[in-house]
């Protein structure tokens, strides 16, 4: 079987399955083993998000010089990952996907060890930047599966890779909670280092290299220009609230980033070997998937941020006692007498919210009560969505995924005052998460020729990174407007004073955040409903040939 693929460096040429090293005729046991090893590398991004992002409060005291800038340990991950992913994806098309996966793995390992050992804030950020190559690894994994797996196995394999084998779903929340509750935060990085030390030899020994190579020169200038533009826009999105959205020193990054992207477009149009074919990037079937990816990850970023805060927020009585204890200490009440003084002080304080949403969980308790079951739901729905796509097209699982994500947001709006109802909301959300993450990369595989797979998948990663960053950025002004405050009456003077409590927010902040996520979900669902892409059975990589006059190759693959 062969397919006609667009060659950016010249006229179209015939590309057969043999060119990629496809493992047709290989035993199912070997296929599953190879897929399991490849999926280990797609687990790296969710693993470090699940384990590291939630541990920021425990990491901060080790770097007092960072101050409020501690958020940069998260910002730099998305910033660097979004900037380098297109270059990594293109290099995998040119020089081999396994080779690039190994190179990225070594860089990730070096960054992880640096983070685990350094006590210098600047070096810690360097380590985090090196870890950001994991974003590019995700794009490579999709291409490696497309090149190696038999066509009929690709949709389900992508579903498995997108939602994991259970390492990030089931293990990471629990393990992260155990390690941070009982050991130093550095143990999280040591776990990631050990994980990579196990994965790298397995990749080298058992996973073959794809034979596909794109015969063109790498547009280094275009890659640098695109990376700078993406980084400037991401920087504004992630830091705009701290800098002030309307400040020239802040929005200058956004304007500059858009201008640099415009320069990149002009540059690419003049290149015989562009970084990515702009006609392909703006084709309706590709643009629709990227738009849905952006909106879906707005939901994902918002949900992860809000539920983590809600689960770990101190309950109302604990905060009341803490505030009143500090007030008593400020008035000179001896420490041993403060507990007895609190009942008499309580009538002097009023609060602007009941904080019914706050669960007061530790990281481990949050994992066991919420995150574990939510993630298992996504792990189950991902492969099912891939199989569904083989039977009736990938548009339907995408519609189902966006519907479930939107439904989950509605449920969170009204059901969030105890962990049991939060668990139900999380399972619905997790099922939608798995279906989306199986459908999106599969739809991209169906939309582009295999010579463009690496760079196309990397643009999907960029769209997802942008969406998550924008979603969290939109929460900042919502939180600012809904700070949790107390009012204290001074009985001696009859005067009262009102003050906010840092990083504690009213219930209305979370409700507004979930409404925002719902809007993103409904827009994404509308795009999925009207898009023409994904209405035929998934082929495992030659669906883009439906655009050709005959489309016979795609029909042949479906029937096979």
Cα-based radius of gyration, to the nearest Å: 25 Å
Mean of the pLDDT scores? 84
* End-to-end separation: 10 Å
- Fraction of residues in β-strands: 5-15%
Fraction of residues in H or I helices:
55-70%
Strand line-up across the major sheet:
3-4-5
- Class inferred from helices and paired strands: mainly alpha
Give the H and E element order.
EEHHHHHHHHHHHHHHHHEHHHHEEHH
How many DSSP-defined strands? 5
Annotate the secondary structure layout.
Blueprint: E1 2-5, E2 13-16, H1 28-42, H2 44-52, H3 56-59, H4 72-95, H5 97-117, H6 121-131, H7 134-148, H8 154-163, H9 167-182, H10 186-206, H11 220-243, H12 248-269, H13 278-281, H14 284-312, H15 316-330, H16 338-345, E3 349-351, H17 363-392, H18 395-414, H19 419-447, H20 453-481, E4 483-489, E5 496-505, H21 507-530, H22 552-559
Antiparallel strand pairs: 1-2, 3-4, 4-5
Helix pairs in contact: 1-7, 1-8, 1-10, 2-9, 4-5, 4-6, 4-7, 4-11, 4-20, 5-6, 5-7, 5-10, 7-8, 7-20, 8-17, 8-19, 9-17, 11-12, 11-20, 14-19, 14-20, 14-21, 15-16, 17-18, 17-19, 18-19, 18-21, 19-20, 20-21
């Amino acid at each position: 079987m062969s397919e006609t693929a667009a060659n950016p460096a010249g006229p179209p040429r015939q590309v057969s399955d043999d060119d990629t090293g496809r493992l047709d005729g290989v035993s199912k046991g070997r296929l599953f083993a190879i897929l399991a090893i490849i999926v280990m590398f797609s687990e790296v991004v969710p693993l470090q998000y699940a384990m590291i992002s939630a541990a920021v409060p425990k990491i901060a005291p080790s770097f007092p010089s960072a101050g409020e800038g501690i958020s940069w340990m998260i910002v730099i991950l998305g910033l660097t990952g979004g900037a380098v992913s297109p270059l990594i994806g293109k290099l995998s098309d040119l020089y081999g996907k396994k080779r690039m996966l190994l190179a990225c793995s070594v860089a990730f390992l070096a960054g992880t060890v640096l983070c685990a050992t350094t006590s210098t804030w600047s070096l810690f950020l360097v380590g985090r930047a090196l870890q950001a190559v994991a974003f590019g690894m995700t794009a490579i994994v999709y291409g490696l599966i497309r090149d190696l797996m038999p066509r009929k196995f690709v949709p389900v394999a992508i579903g498995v890779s997108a939602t994991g084998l259970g390492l990030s779903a089931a293990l990471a929340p629990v393990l992260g909670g155990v390690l941070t509750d009982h050991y130093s935060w550095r143990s999280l990085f040591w776990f990631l280092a050990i994980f990579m030390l196990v994965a790298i030899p397995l990749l080298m020994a058992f996973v073959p290299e794809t034979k596909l190579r794109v015969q063109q020169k790498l547009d280094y200038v275009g890659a640098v220009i695109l990376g700078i533009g993406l980084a400037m826009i991401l920087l504004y999105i992630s830091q705009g609230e701290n800098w002030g959205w309307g400040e020239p020193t802040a929005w200058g990054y956004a304007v500059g980033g858009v201008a640099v992207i415009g320069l990149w477009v002009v540059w690419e149009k003049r290149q015989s070997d562009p970084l990515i074919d702009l006609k392909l990037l703006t084709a309706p079937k590709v643009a629709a998937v990227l738009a849905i990816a952006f909106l879906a990850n707005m939901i994902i970023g918002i949900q992860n941020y809000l539920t983590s805060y809600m689960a770990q927020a101190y309950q109302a009585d604990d905060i009341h006692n803490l505030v009143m204890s500090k007030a008593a200490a400020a008035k000179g009440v001896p420490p041993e007498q403060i507990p007895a003084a609190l009942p008499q002080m309580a009538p002097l304080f009023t609060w602007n919210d009941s904080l019914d949403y706050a669960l007061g969980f530790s990281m481990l308790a949050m994992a066991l009560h919420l995150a574990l079951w939510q993630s298992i739901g996504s792990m189950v729905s991902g492969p099912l969505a891939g199989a569904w796509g083989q039977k009736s097209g990938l548009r339907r699982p995408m519609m189902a995924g966006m519907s479930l994500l939107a439904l989950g947001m509605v449920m969170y709006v009204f059901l969030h005052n105890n962990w049991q109802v939060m668990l139900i909301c999380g399972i619905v959300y997790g099922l939608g998460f798995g279906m989306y993450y199986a459908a999106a990369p599969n739809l991209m595989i169906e939309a582009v020729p295999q010579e463009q797979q690496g760079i196309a998948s990397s643009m999907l990663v960029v769209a997802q990174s942008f969406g998550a960053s924008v979603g969290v950025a939109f929460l900042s002004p919502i939180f600012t407007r809904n700070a949790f405050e107390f009012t204290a009456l001074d009985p001696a003077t009859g005067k009262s004073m009102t003050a906010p409590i840092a990083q504690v927010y009213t219930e209305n902040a979370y409700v507004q955040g979930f409404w925002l996520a719902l809007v993103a979900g409904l827009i994404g669902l509308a795009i999925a409903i009207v898009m023409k892409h994904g209405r035929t059975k998934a082929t495992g990589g030659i669906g883009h040939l439906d655009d050709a006059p005959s489309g016979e190759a795609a029909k042949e693959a479906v029937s096979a």
